[in-house]
Amino acid sequence: MLKFYNKVIIIIKKDNLYDDDASESGSGWISWFCDLEGHEFFIEVDEDYIRDNFNLHGLKERIQYFNEAMQMILSADNPDSEDLNDQNFLEIYQSAMDLYGLIHARFIISPRGLAMMKEKYMLGSFGYCPRVLCERQNILPIGVSEELSTSRVKVYCPRCQDVYIPRQKQLDIDGAYFGTSFPHIFLKVLKINLKHLIQTYTELIPQGPPKFIPKIYGFKIFGMRGSKYELKFDFKGQPVNEEEIRNVLKKDKKSNKRDEEEKMNI
């Protein structure tokens, strides 16, 4: 089970977001929630989207305090220090966070949500791929499960197409708040839209990363990826191009023998 209560309180105290002055600003719970440290992956879901029952289908059965959580999400007031010390409030807050997260996972694959996530992606708000050969490629948040409290959020690199653990401050975010399909829908829609844009924008859809070729003093290593005698194995560990390698070795052997004969004749 993922637990967020203590984490939220620490973050709020650190940024002084629980002060009475902040609660009187009237920015609303959604803005307050998305502004918390560690919540940089979130975008503010439109209230009209949240109020539409069609977008809430199947969520009522998954959230314990659904009605109270919905009321909290749509509230125009920010929690104050007294609220955050109330255990009953924190229980409803957990439900509100789960409900908002599940709505958020649906909103970010809507046209409006995709446009908002595109802005964050272009700014590098989600971070960069830790793989050296990806050259600081912008990444996207992804969940590995649609179920709550199953797995924390991960990040997906569209260049190497691999999944990584995000930075420390995003580690307590539930992966279900982003869903398992977002990066692929996002990149598919972005690729379609780019067909109507000028060529300079095609860099948003990265090509595959260059292969790392191991070398010793500039020479490629026998049997390693990228070498002349690269070995490729099947799922049983057997080389699939054994005959090709044998032919290459025979040619090299003949070539070496010919060179030796020429040297002897000289």
Mean pLDDT: 79
Ends: how far apart? 80 Å
Determine the strand fraction and express it as a percent band: 5-15%
Q: Return residue spans where pLDDT drops below 50 for at least 5 consecutive residues.
A: 1-7, 13-26, 197-202
What is the second-level CATH architecture of the largest domain?
Answer: Single Sheet
Radius of gyration: 27 Å
Q: Write down the overall geometry.
A: elongated
Count, helices: 9
Number of domains: 3
- Strand neighbour order, sheet with most strands: 1-2-3
**Largest sheet properties:** 3 strands, antiparallel
Number of strands: 5
At CATH level 3, the topology of the largest domain is N-terminal domain of TfIIb
- CATH class term of the largest domain: Mainly Beta
| Multimerization status | single chain
Output the helix-strand order: HHHHHHHEEEHEEH
Helix content: 25-40%
Q: What would you call the structural class?
A: mainly alpha
List the helices and strands and how they pair.
Blueprint: H1 5-15, H2 20-23, H3 29-34, H4 47-51, H5 66-73, H6 87-107, H7 111-123, E1 140-142, E2 154-157, E3 162-164, H8 182-194, E4 215-216, E5 219-220, H9 242-265
Antiparallel strand pairs: 1-2, 2-3, 4-5
Helix pairs in contact: 5-6
